[in-house]
Amino acid sequence: MTGNRKNRKGTFGKVVKTVFSVLGILVFGAVLLAANTLLPKYGRMVNEILAYKQGWNTPETGLDLQYSKPDFTAEASKEIGKALNERIAGEGIVLLENEGALPLKPGTALSLFSHSSVDVLAGGYSGSGLTLKDALESRGFTVNKTLWDFYATGNGSACVRGPGSIDYGRAEDFRINECPVDEILAEAGMEESFEGTTAVFVWSRVVGEGRDMPRSMCLHTDIEADKAKNYLEPDSVELGVLNYLNSRFEHVILLVNSPSVMELGWAKALPHVTAVVQMGLTGTYGMNALADILAGHINPSGRLTDTAAYDAFSSPASRNYGDFRYVDESGKETRYNYISYAEGIYVGYRYYETRYEDAVLGQGNAGEYDYDTIVQYPFGYGLSYTTFEWSDFRVTEEAQGFLVSVTVTNTGGTAGKEVVQVYLQSPYTPYDVANGIEKASVELAAYVKTGLLAPGASETVTARVDREQMKVYDSRGAKTYILDAGEYFLTAASDAHRAVCNILAAKGADADGDAAFTYRHRVAVRDSETYAYDSETGAPVTNLFDEEAGGLVYLSRSDWTGTFPEPDGIVSDIPSSWGNPANGADGGSYVYTKTASAAEIARMDGTDSGNPVPDGRFTALPVYGAKNGLGLADLRGLAFDDPQWEKLLDQLTEEDTKQLVTASGYGTPDIASVVKPYVLDADAATGLVFGNTSGVTFPGAEILAQTWNTDLAKEFGTFIGNTGLLGGVTGWYSPAMNLHRTPFSGRNNEYYSEDPYISGCVAAAEVLGAAEKGMYTFIKHFALNDQENHRGDTETEWGAATWANEQAIRELYLKPFERCVKAGTVTLNYVEDGAVAAKEVRACQALMTSFNRLGYTWTGGHYRLITGILRSEWGFNGFVITDADTPTHMDPVQMIKAGADGKLNYLNEYDLDLADPATAHYAREAAHRILYTVANSKAMNGAMHGSRLTGVPTADVVRIVLTVLNAVLIALLVFFTVRRFTKKEAQ
Fold first, then answer.
1. Bridge partners of 55?
2. Per-residue CA distances from 106 to 138, 541, 555 (Å)
3. 320 in the Ramachandran plot: left (φ > 0), alpha (ψ -120 to 50) or beta?
4. Taking residues 40-65, what's their average pLDDT?
5. Would you state the pLDDT for residue 629?
6. Residue 68 carries which DSSP code?
7. Strand blocks (E) in 647-765
8. Which residues contact 549 (CB under 8 A, 6 or more apart)?
9. What is the Cα–Cα distance from 708 to 759, expressed in whole angstroms?
10. Which of 174, 806, 815, 841 could be cross-linked to 475 through a Cys-Cys bond (beta carbons 3.0 to 4.6 Å apart)?
């Protein structure tokens, strides 16, 4: 019996062990399978996260093949990045109001109010490791600990604002959720803790990719009085706290923690709100600079790059922004949304200042337009702790433009910097009215920032205005750019409104301006020839976007009242979950709709790029897999059309070509056939997501623009280029230069301004700085991606159809991109005839398209946009990639036929038919442009003819380790299982 029990016990033990062995084999087998199926598929992502770097095995030549060199070490980048972050914030934060409150006295005790005071928005989507309390205390202030702890860990800690956009726009949550004043005051000892302190209220508004800020709060609050409000104004709970502060404190400092200009008229009713600071999104360390400004260690010199209106809905652009959907001819909802830019060129100050001038002059049916009750802070506005006097205004004409100089003297008692802004006014003529040409009363044409001027010191600054900036697009008459006949004005001013007033004073109108700061220039005869050809490429310039005007009636200064836009559609009974205004009779928010014909829907359903070349023109297939003995390094420095490129392209296999075209997201794959290395491309506008050796997230783009300091912008670009060299990043998905068409945009923290000129200047400086370090920058989002709602990046979104006229498209929305493409050149080092040679190449070598449609057609597959403007007019031969890869409407064949190149996609999951001669032709052209861009980047550091790649991709290392480890474990389990049942028999 005992023996039987032992046998049964032994058998049971073997069975249990065998079950666990089988389970182990299944688990290890699953890991083995995943390692060899998923890792090859998602290897790019693994390489990015784990920072895979390749190297070059190059014969000893004695040549310096480090074509691009970093200026500092990875360790040093941490302190350099921190200092640069603080400098950008220090020059970009804008002082809006100051009634004796700032700077604060040393040691001032501060009470920090609002839940955002303990969770300041520092970079768009998340807070900073540095708290506002830390920053203030590091500058000698004391912070009310009772109040801080209440928000940080106490009863106020549950008051957390909504995150805004959720999962790239799949949902939204813009709850404000401020802690009511009664709950604050109910805390024991709280009111006593306020004694002897100055109040600081942090007013935050979150932004988020995929969703815009709501125009009504009906979905984000339970308070009836707040439902009709928009997200840019305070709700009743916030006002309750602010009213209490106004009654309790002598000084209340308002910190506006948002990348958008906010509605701030309410603050004028609170006399003890004595200082207002537009702090924006400061980055990792920018709150130190904010603390320095409050302490007076830094004199604020930031200036607004948007117009701050009392009511954000006063702008014509706001009428058509949000949730607009097509219905079919039967009234059924379609899957397509639309946006109508019916305001034309009149965005931001171009509207507010132009209508003001016409109201003063009694022209253009301007109506009852009271500028002072509409605009609170004009474009370019900002205060200082000192005062400046301007003198000696002069303009010198040159063949290519005008030199505008001003002497600036610091007449106050504090050292500070001043911004001199130069504006241009073009004549608005009967020809313009007859041909639908619109002219803003002023346009920013140049700017310059002084150095730090000590009290009593002076500096004469000079800004250049190119003559070409006087041109205007005439889409009906000449169908090209013209130089109108008439009188032009140049003026130097502290902001856009002052500029208009200067010109009005020069015209003899009753305006608070200074005619001494204006210059007149007369053009005798209208010129429709000089600018009919691109000044850089010589390509003809003519209409390309007649269809995209969409039959809209556009706002005209010839009849302000009669053409002022209304929403382009009717209010439906479909509730809006995308933050439309309160537009229903019941106070609710509903979708605007209008009818699209069956033919229009078919256009949007289709994937026609508009390429006029018939596919049948291509009959022969390219050569694949040739053995020509070339490596990509051999092509570095050669012209884009050099015959050697054809030989290199012949070496590509079909699979190589597919990989380059359909799977170039966040880097392009290594291609053995042409000895191309794997390269890593990384987001984002505020610093590199991958390979960021500094660990710094920089301030939002709006802060950088508000510095009005292009040297600082270039320094930022150079820093990113340096960290790319140190961290293994070759391409940068930035800068972004869509416009702040309204303050509601969810990506205003990534975009610079409502103005295309300053947007282009800042972006071009960044491009130049990064390119000098061998980095290519994907300028984005091309184009008219000025609204996040319905842009087209989720499973149910198909890319909003965007309608605008040719003048607005060219003069506003494409202008920053054009300035970047033509930003200038950088020196490229390469090997030629056995020696290192140098040549100048374009700094801008990459571009990213956008989610939306221009007219009916997705921008990434829009032939007239990409080949017509970008490649043919501007002469751009660089790498064009899509923004993400939404399968709903981003067709890869449409993309390459339009002239774009690569999908922002990890996986080679598209079946690109390279047996079709037309598809194969366009895919080869796309591969050429991608390889050309990489060849002339820092990816070739260390390479020349004969170089071979070394290093195993990190994903492959992980795959090999997991394969070997799990195979061994499976073998061991099998061995012990078999041995378990054979050992007894052997015995």
1. 950
2. 12, 60, 52
3. beta
4. 78
5. 96
6. S
7. 667-668, 679-682, 731-732
8. 803, 804, 805, 806
9. 10
10. 806
Do 622 and 615 touch, CB atoms closer than 8 A? Answer: no
Q: Is the Cβ–Cβ distance between 266 and 384 less than 8 Å?
A: no
* Of the candidate ranges 115-129, 534-548, 702-716, 868-882, the one whose mean pLDDT is the lowest: 115-129
Contact 162, 569 (CB under 8 A): no
Count of alpha carbons within 13 angstroms of residue 630, beta-carbon side: 20
Tell me how far apart the alpha carbons of residues 544 and 783 are, in angstroms, rounded to a whole number.
14
3-state secondary structure of 227: coil
Q: Which two tokens stand for residue 44?
A: 């790019």
The identity of residue 615, as a single letter, is D
- What size, in residues, is the chain? 987
Nearest to 766 by CA among 781, 776, 756: 776
Neighbouring C-beta atoms of residue 270, cutoff 10 Å: 16
Q: Which of 939, 884, 768 is nearest to 210 (CA)?
A: 884
Q: Which residues sit opposite 671 in a β-bridge?
A: 676
Nearest to 210 by CA among 165, 179, 143, 256: 165
Amino acid identity of residue 668, one-letter, is T
Phi-psi region for residue 296, left (φ > 0), alpha (ψ -120 to 50) or beta?
Answer: left
Q: Do β-strands 164-166 and 518-523 pair in parallel, antiparallel, or remain unpaired?
A: unpaired
Report helix, strand or coil for 308: strand
The secondary structure of the chain in percent helix, strand, coil, rounded to multiples of 5, reads 35, 20, 45
**297 vs 88: CA distance, rounded Å:** 15
Cα–Cα distances in angstroms (integers) from residue 895 to residues 530, 853, 925, 933, in the given order:
33, 13, 12, 18
Over residues 663-688, the pLDDT tens digits come to 999 999 999 999 999 999 999 899 99
Instruction: Give the separation between CA 761 and CA 965, rounded to whole angstroms.
Output: 54
Specify burial of residue 114 (Cβ count, 10 A radius: 0-12, 13-18, 19+).
Answer: buried
Amino acid 940: pLDDT: 97
The model's pLDDT over 816-867, given as tens digits with 9 standing for 90+, comes to 999 999 999 999 999 999 999 999 999 999 999 999 999 999 999 999 999 9
Query: Nearest CA to 378 among 423, 431, 329, 333?
Result: 423
Of 424, 337, 416, which Cα lies nearest the Cα of 383? 416
Question: Which helix H or strand E contains 375, and what residues bound it?
Answer: strand 375-377
Helix/strand/coil for 704: helix
Strand partners, 570: 593
The set of residues, in sequence order, having a beta carbon less than 8 Å from that of 369 and lying 6+ positions away, is: 355, 356, 359, 560
What are the two backbone dihedrals, phi and then psi, of residue 40, each rounded to the nearest 5 degrees? -60, -30
C-alpha–C-alpha distance, residues 880 and 882, integer Å: 7
**For position 465, what pLDDT does the model report?**
98
Region 357-364: mean pLDDT is 98
What's the mean pLDDT in 386-396?
A: 98
Q: Apex CA 174: angle with CA 169 and CA 177, to 5°? A: 155
Structure tokens at 238: 């916030």
Assess whether pLDDT exceeds 80 at residue 178.
Answer: yes
Phi, psi of 684 (to 5 degrees): -150, -175
User: At residue 968, what is the residue type?
Assistant: V
DSSP three-state, residue 88: helix
Phi first, then psi: give them for residue 975, nearest 5 degrees: -60, -50
| Buried b / exposed e along 691-710 (16+ C-beta atoms within 10 A) | bbbbebbbbbbbbbbbbbbb
Distance CA 909, CA 42 (A): 11
In whole angstroms, give the CA distance from residue 823 to residue 717. 13
Dist. CA 880–CA 929, nearest whole Å: 8
CA 890 vs CA 775, 880, 981: distances in Å = 27, 14, 59
Q: Express each pLDDT in 618-631 by its tens digit.
A: 999 999 999 999 99
